[in-house]
Amino acid sequence: MTDPPHEYEPNSEIEDVATLDELDLPAAVLREFVHRSGALRVSALLDRGEDTPPAVVETGRLAPVLATEAQRVRRMSHTQEVAVALPALPEVRQLPAMDVNAETGQVTGVLGGLEHLAGALRALAEILGGRTAVAAEFESTDPDTPLGLVARHGEAVAVMLGDEAFALEV
């Protein structure tokens, strides 16, 4: 198994764990989203209130779940069961890869497909609460330019194509 891409200090230690404790629920939600949506990877910058620094939880297809809090990085197996009940998740289905053009910001695919994925990702951010931001990467027909989406409840969804970003109102 490979880890999702994440920048760590060369001397950072990654702790292998069977539970992420209070981050088990976000981990399970993100893992389920990957399975249902077909996303390559998904991550969340979790808003935990004014008095607690945010945490990052991320996972990818059959990849471990990584949780980063301050300088602590924990890794949990993708197949590890967690003792949490999943909340009602947004409807999301796997779609064929979309054609993307990073220069023009054009995304072509199944009618309503981009809006479907963006709406589901925004709903996921709302489920995780507060000002949480959720990012997902999906396959495109250009292997060098995946389709990236970043969502936060109540804000436009950012569509990321290579180094370019475009706003999408859903």
Could you give the order of the helices and strands?
EHEEEEEEHEEEE
Q: What form results from the Cα inertia axes?
A: globular
Helix-residue proportion: 10-25%
Contiguous low-pLDDT stretches (5 residues minimum) are: 1-8
Classification by helices and strands: alpha+beta
Cα(first) to Cα(last) distance is 35 Å
Describe the largest sheet: 9 strands, mixed
Radius of gyration: 16 Å
Q: Quickly count the helices.
A: 2
Strand content: 25-35%
Strand order of the largest sheet: 1-5-4-3-2-8-9-10-11
Mean pLDDT: 91
Overall strand count? 11
Give an overview of the whole structure.
The chain is an alpha+beta fold and 170 residues long. The chain has a domain of 101 residues. The protein contains two helices and eleven strands, in the order βαββββββαββββ. β4 and β5 form a beta hairpin. The N terminus is likely disordered.
Secondary structure topology:
Blueprint: E1 14-17, H1 24-37, E2 41-46, E3 55-60, E4 65-69, E5 72-76, E6 99-101, E7 106-108, H2 113-128, E8 133-138, E9 147-152, E10 157-161, E11 164-168
Parallel strand pairs: 1-5
Antiparallel strand pairs: 2-3, 2-8, 3-4, 4-5, 6-7, 8-9, 9-10, 10-11
